[in-house]
Amino acid sequence: MATGVERGQAYREKVRDLNVTVVGLARSGVAACQLLIELGARVSATDAKPMEELSPSVRELGRIGVTLFLGGHPKEALYRSELVVVSPGVRSDLLLLGEARNRGIAVISEVELAWRVTEADCIAITGTNGKTTTTALTGALLEGGARPVVVGGNIGRPLSQEALSMPKRGIVVAELSSFQLETIEHFQPRVAVMLNLTPDHLDRYPSFAAYRDAKARIFLNQTTQDRAILNADDAEVARFANKTMARTIYFSASRELVEGVFVALNGWIMARLDGRDLAICPVVEVPLLGRHNLENVVAATACALWAGVDPTVIRRAIKEFRGVPHRLEWVRGFDGVAYYNDSKATNVASALKAIESFAKPIVLIAGGLGKGQDFRELAEGARGKVRSTILIGKDRAHLKSALNGVTEVEEVESLEEAVLRARRIAKPGEVVLLSPACASFDMFRDFEHRGDAFKALVLALGERGNA
Q: Which end of the chain is more exposed for a tag (fewer CB within 10 A), N or C?
């Protein structure tokens, strides 16, 4: 365990009667407030949005004793504060957080808080793409083992929501974003997984190097007793072997490794660890599309083997896993055309992986908030694979500039128009793929909202007025 930090019951006692300020009241912030109140802390909370723009659960916080400062982040929110817990959606350069640090108040993430409250082991998974699928699959694989398992973090269920219910012998499988890792302090996962690294969130970070450094914090407190699971096929990720004290375990979907988890020449997923070769399952049994999902499977397998799950149990769970919504999710076939929802593709690298997953010609629906990305790489990946592109959203002009001359390109005003246009131009045997390469917040609450809207529109095709 990281030196100088109390966990479990000792930390719960320390929090009692502590004055704590929670900054940001989305799901993670609300969960942190509820946990702290249950532990007996005196809690204030602040959010830039007014009450009417926040979820009903924020109103409930006032009823359980949280002092709310809404519509801004006033310094009064720090009155008597001894600890600040920050939600991942809040920028680390927020003036209120700077004021807290100037006063000598510790600023930690909601993930750090939850980790300190529980004594369960943690498997932490990060990377630019594939985090949610790998996290969900790892949880599914571990359910066949002997230890209690909970899955949470950036995947949608805040860790603070589960912190008091996890037994000491349990395992928390946590998807972590760079935002969540920015403000960890002593957080020490027993297993830290880095799936891949490509430029992302350049609207929040000044450079790719800054984004990479935020991700690297996942290894910050690991010791030689821990494990760092790294993608041997990603040069940026492989470099982290020199930046962690943990024992490194590599994974690869493209080549055999001297040691690690990989896809062998015979078409089987294999593990070669501690002088033993273990056959896991043939690749043909993996139900998920795309090479990137094969990477996710071998990474999750490495985690399950660390936890002591039997290879036969891993094989069965891989065969039964059907993915998670909004990640290359098959919606329906209609008039000989297959429709796929990949709304979670909020950056270029993720959209490229979706495009690479299909051998059939693609009608691509893309666009949204570009996050400062360079779309030329998307254009190169689309060449010869994407027959036509329909663009939506705020930054569609930037996408059009990159894609002109590579595919047929047209712009529309709404997702509904895009689906109807795709219905008209897609030919039997082709794929209509929503893989935006952009964030969703210009038109939707989040990528789930965008994906759900797409699925509803696709399922309505053929109804009166949509034929």
A: C
Q: Does the residue 7 lie in any domain? A: no
H-type alpha helices, 16-72: 27-38, 56-63
Of 104, 122, 148, which one is at a domain's C-terminal end? Answer: 104
Residues 270 and 140 in one domain: yes
Query: Do 359 and 448 fall into the same domain?
Result: yes
- How far apart (Å, rounded) are the C-alpha atoms in residues 126 and 107? 21
Domain boundary among 286, 320, 354: 320
3-state secondary structure of 439: strand
Write down how long the chain is. 467
pLDDT at residue 459 above 50? yes
> Residue 1's pLDDT band (boundaries 50, 70, 90)?
very low
User: Does pLDDT of 86 surpass 70?
Assistant: yes
For residue 264, what are the domain limits? 112-320
Cα separation, 176 vs 126, whole angstroms: 5
Structure letter (DSSP) for residue 359: S
Beta-carbon contacts of residue 274 (< 8 Å; ≥ 6 apart): none
Lookup: tokens for 442:
């210009």
Residue 464 has pLDDT above 60, yes or no: no
The pTM of the full predicted model, rounded to 2 decimals, is 0.83
- The whole-number pLDDT of residue 154 equals 86
Q: Quick one: 68 and 206 in the same domain?
A: no
Domain shared by 177 and 276, yes or no: yes
Paired with 104 in beta bridges are none
Distances (CA, A) of 118 to 88, 111, 124, 415: 20, 11, 15, 43
Q: Are 351 and 300 part of one and the same domain? A: no
Cα(391)–Cα(331) distance, rounded to whole angstroms?
A: 20
Share of the chain above pLDDT 90, in %: 88
Dihedral Cα 190, 215, 2, 103, nearest 10 deg: -150
Instruction: For 282, list phi and psi in degrees, rounded to 5.
Output: -70, 145
Kindly state whether residues 283 and 392 are assigned to the same domain.
no
Tell me the longest C-alpha to C-alpha distance in the chain: 66
The pLDDT mean for the chain works out to 94
Strands 106-109 and 83-86: parallel
- Per-residue pLDDT reduced to its tens digit, 357-395: 898 999 999 999 999 999 999 999 999 999 999 999 999
- pLDDT over 80 (residue 240): yes
Of the pLDDT bands very low, low, confident and very high (cuts 50, 70, 90), residue 466 is: low
CATH number of the domain at 400, please: 3.90.190.20
Looking at the structure, tell me whether residues 131 and 174 fall in a common domain: yes
Q: Does 150 share its domain with 293? A: yes
Within 8 A by CB and 6+ apart from 137, the residues are 296, 297, 300, 317, 318, 321
Task: Return the beta strands (E) in 367-407 as ranges.
Answer: 386-391
